[in-house]
Amino acid sequence: MAPTRLLLSTLLAIAALVLSNAALAQPKAPVVVWPTLTPAGDAPGGAALHQPDPVTDKDVFERAQELDATLRDAVQDLGFTLYVADAGPAVGHARDADLLARAARSAVGGQDVGTWVVSPRLESAGGGSYVVRIVVALPNGRELRVRVETAPSESVGVRGLVMLRDLLSPSAAAQAATERDREQAEAGESRTSAAPPRSAGRAVLAVNAALFGGFTSFSLQRSSGSTDPRVLYPLLALGAGIGVGSALLVADEWDITTGDAWYLSAGAWWGAGAGFLIAAGRHVLPLEDRYNLGVAGGLIGASLATATLALTRPPMDDGDAILAHSGAAFGLLMGGAGELFYRGRSTMEVTPYTGAGYGTALGLLGAGALATRISISPSRLLLIDLGIGGGALVGAAIASPLIFQNATPTNTRGWLMATMVGSVAGGFATWWLTRDTTPSRVSSFLPPGSPTAGIIGESLTPRGSVPAYGIGWAGRM
After folding, report:
1. Rounded to whole angstroms, how far apart are CA atoms 262 and 265?
2. What pTM does this model have?
3. Each residue of 433-465: pLDDT tens digit?
4. Which of 46, 147, 164, 317 has its CA 20 to 30 A from that of 11?
């Protein structure tokens, strides 16, 4: 029964993590994909850009049709909303300024979220290859993002999909919004009362602050030794009210994005969980004091998250927030399994509160710090979380004969080690498979091709020709 309980706990934790994180990966601004133009270069004024003619530019026209269909499907596959009512610019109106002007107009009524504008360009490069150039204007942005690559005829659509995926990143939209706010502040532009609220994460922050305020009040009531509901309910209302008021004041003073709000919630809730688990593992008495240590851990976690947000700008995006939650959950599971491995016991004999608490704290600190250094999409993080859970289940299944036949301390340690190694291997494999496959700068110095070894020629000798062995590089120069 012990392995079954541990497997069930692991599945429940993974399911809760995936469901809570999935709410963060929601696109905002819609995407407009203009028809593919030719040539790939942006001529002065944009007058030379035109749609390929099906008669005079037959090959380019066919590839352009393929590229248009691929990009429109890719927009929806990447989780964005495709705005199909925009048929594209008129002739001579595909300049950079036209893209920025269209990006400043929102396709969602009543919401100033802007629009992603994608303008693909295609031109024959000779030899069956094409120059693919994709220009993307960020919602409400003041800059253009451009990717240019040369691809063979059969790979035009695939390369366009990869280029579009790299260009439509959530961090780019957040950076554009930050730049726009900075420009408006420097120009002294006043915001009217009819303008939408600046802090998009106001509601998320208020809900989490209300819940944490109620939890704090409950802990104070339990530590006082009182069980009177006439004291508890007013305290809960007071704590929730203080939490909501504090959140609204913070949202009015600073620009709190949804990523910031979820990042702060990770510090508060996972910090509280770590404090409570450590107190339980240390057998803190009386039992009411464990709630106080949980509140202390939550305040420490929220304080560290606030300091991190104050020192790192631009704001956190949804991927950074998911990384903090995922790191804490991974630390919880690995810390609990590590304590069981150290003791050589199963969950039927001991509950690993201490290891789970310390693992949660270390996972939260490590993932929170890592979120300030890297940028990763929410969908990729969810896939990595699934890879970690799937790897743990595979490792546990492979090593299950060790504990189902004779659950000795040595066999239990072997089963736990297989589970932990499987989770790490599953996460690493998912990260590797979902990485960006764009060639690096180092590999770009090498000509296209692949290394070869073996017989590369022959040499004439008095006894006849003999093979010449060596290594080389075979490919197109």
Report:
1. 5
2. 0.50
3. 888 765 444 444 455 555 666 666 666 666 666
4. 317
